[in-house]
From TrEMBL:
Signal peptide: 1-16
Protein name according to UniProt: C-type lectin domain-containing protein
Keywords: Signal
Length: 235
């Protein structure tokens, strides 16, 4: 008898166990649209990782939470992630024994191989001008998650774009060009010592606060890639 009652009592309890974000993740409300697959509720965290410059390491870290790489969908999310990243810089400096002056965060998005091939064949290629398949807002980038609308990020990814070109010359007139093709976020640096998560009204934005970075952790920018933005729905 007592067992029956217990069972009965536990049913409403189980039903009311609302999904929540894993520890250290921040919860945000999103406006559901077709472009973010009707997502209204999202969790994200910036996690410190020594090898964040490598796309495979970055995605592998997020997979531990059953999440994927993520990207801010709005200015509000961008500011929240920027604020969050301050603690990450401190943790990464301590854990990796490095001075990090300007933390870069690996975020979702990289060139599709097809469009990258187009760019490699034609160094004059301008994704912003392409109205076809490899246009900036068409299929130039591929995203691990379909629950974020990338429009906000892509519209701010314009400085020196495409960037990170590197060219190697070989005998016989052979030259090989390579391009940075993964997205990284350069957080806003806030201007007040009292700044807290709750107080995000006075942020100023830099121009061009998304970058293209190398996907394999090699070359220049990996020096400061010590954060990964992971996200997913509450679970
Ligand atoms: C969109 O969301 C629904 C429900 O959460 C999910 O089943 C579906 O796989 C998602 N679509 C894509 C393209 O990820
Ligand atoms: C991971 O997420 C998928 C899709 O949302 C879900 O089907 C699966 O059960 C989750 N796995 C774990 C271990 O939470
Ligand atoms: C941290 O880095 C500094 C400078 O590279 C080095 O001298 C020091 O031994 C390192 N500390 C640890 C605990 O590895
Ligand atoms: C915002 O920052 C500016 C410059 O640091 C400062 O002068 C201003 O008082 C701040 N505004 C608020 C509302 O805190």
């Amino acid at each position: 008898m007592s067992r029956l009652i217990l069972l009965f009592l536990s049913i409403p309890f189980v039903l009311s166990a609302a999904p929540k974000c894993p520890e250290d993740f921040v919860r945000v409300e999103r406006t559901p649209t077709v472009k973010n697959n009707h997502t209204s509720d999202w969790c994200f965290a910036v996690l410190a990782l020594d090898r964040a410059g490598s796309r495979d390491w970055a995605r592998g870290l997020c997979a531990n939470y059953n999440y994927t790489l993520s990207i801010p969908e709005s200015l509000e999310e961008f500011r929240l992630i920027s604020a969050y990243s301050k603690g990450v810089t401190a943790a990464a400096e301590r854990d990796f024994n490095k001075t990090i002056t300007n933390l870069l965060i690996a975020v979702d998005g990289e060139f599709t191989p097809k469009c990258k091939a187009k760019m490699v064949r034609n160094w004059r290629y301008k994704p912003k001008k392409d109205k076809g398949e490899c246009g900036l807002h068409q299929n130039l980038f591929s995203f691990d998650s379909s629950n974020t609308d990338p429009t906000f990020a892509l519209d701010r990814n314009l400085e020196g774009y495409p960037n990170g070109r590197s060219e190697s010359g070989f005998p016989g007139g052979i030259s090989i060009a390579r391009y940075a093709s993964c997205l990284a976020m350069d957080p806003d640096r806030y201007d007040s010592a009292e700044f807290k998560y709750e107080d995000i009204t006075n942020h100023t934005l830099h121009d061009g606060f998304f970058h293209l970075t190398w996907c394999d952790g090699s070359e220049g920018e990996e020096q400061n890639m010590f954060g990964v933005l992971c996200g997913g729905p509450p679970q």
